Amino acid sequence: MKNKLSDLNNHLFAQLERLSDEGMTPEQIEQEVKRAGAMVAVADQISSNAELSLKAAKLYADHGDKVLPHLPQIGGASG
Questions:
Q1: Quick one: 32 exposed, middle or buried, by C-beta within 10 A (0-12, 13-18, 19+)?
Q2: Cβ contacts of residue 19 below 8 Å, gap of 6+?
Q3: Which 3-state string (H, E, C) describes the chain?
Q4: How far apart, in whole angstroms, are the C-alpha atoms of residue 57 and residue 6?
Q5: pTM for this model (two decimals)
Q6: What pLDDT digit, counting tens, does each position of 30-64 carry?
Q7: Does residue 58 contact residue 17 with C-beta atoms inside 8 Å?
Q8: 16 conformational bin, left if phi > 0, alpha if psi -120 to 50, beta if neither
Q9: Where are the domains of the chain?
Q10: Superkingdom of this entry's organism (predicted)?
């Protein structure tokens, strides 16, 4: 996958720049506000997923393989 958290950061700052464009009409501002809201919702989910991955990595680093039986299996592997 090519997307990184740094890409998300760049997209959010680009949206911030679009929102600060003083030459926009009220309709354009409304459209950018809606777009920004959608971006924030997706960004929140991406951030939550990254935080969960970090917590799982820390748990594994702190406790090793013994925690694996207590974690859900990922990738469709079964029992």
A1: middle
A2: 29, 32, 33, 36
A3: CCCCHHHHHHHHHHHHHHHCCCCCCHHHHHHHHHHHHHHHHHHHHHHHHHHHHHHHHHHHHHHHHHHHHHCCCCCCCCC
A4: 20
A5: 0.73
A6: 999 999 999 999 999 999 999 988 998 898 899 88
A7: no
A8: alpha
A9: 5-70
A10: Bacteria
